[in-house]
Amino acid sequence: MPKVVSIHSYRGGTGKSNTTANLSTSVALQGQRVAVVDTDIQSPGIHNLFGLDPERMDKTLNNFLWGQAPIEDAAYDVGGNVGVQGDGKLFLIPASIRPDDISRILSEGYDVKLLHEGFRKLVKGLNLDYLFIDTHPGLSKETFLSIAISHVLILILRPDKQDYQGTAVTVDVAKQLKVRKMLLVVNKALSSMNFDALKQKVEDTYGTTVAGIFPLSEDMVQLASEGVFCVKYPDHRVSQEFRKVALQVMA
């Protein structure tokens, strides 16, 4: 049965898109058919991680939402850019980076029900095993939809007071929406912290499983979104943690 996986955070800057790119790639490298939808339409950027040149993006999620093209026409095969071979497939449905398109979305919004229908068409049309949704930070009717339809919801937070408070609100919403499986990922933790104690603290606070804890990594900062980290540095501690989380998504 295909799985919908939403990657979400209450605040921006948590590493949501990097997490989405690395987890979806890790799953595709296991021979699965995977697609990623960039629904962070106000500030799109995950296409950079997958090496998709904006010049190639003739159609985007925006075109589908405005009734200008089928959503499948905005699906780009990026598997070859990250070493996905054989039965595995990795598609990206990017959002437009054109300033006029972003302004239009901000002023007009879009039909959330249509977005849901687009997800269904993608799963069927591309014969997907997994659909990853890179959400917009915060809580809105768009993110409520993504959370509600998810088989797996991954919430990312930093060990930061504002993140703790915002995540508490999001966890409560997810529980009200009866999300089937919720996992927490702690990102940008200082290496000096006791990760076992941090994991226990977060799990006790939210009553939810912590799937992984990622240290603040200078190597990831230096990569500067020019590629998928777990492909560039497969033996790195951070890459090993991504693979561990990916296995929990697939379980």
From TrEMBL:
* Name listed for the protein in its UniProt record: MinD/ParA family protein
Annotated ranges, domain CobQ/CobB/MinD/ParA nucleotide binding? 6-227
* Protein source organism: Aerosakkonema funiforme FACHB-1375
Recorded superkingdom = Bacteria
Q: Which residues form a coiled coil?
A: none
**Highest classification ranks of the organism:** Bacteria, Bacillati, Cyanobacteriota, Cyanophyceae, Oscillatoriophycideae
Q: Which InterPro entries match?
A: CobQ/CobB/MinD/ParA_Nub-bd_dom (IPR002586), DNA_Partitioning_ATPase (IPR050678), P-loop_NTPase (IPR027417)
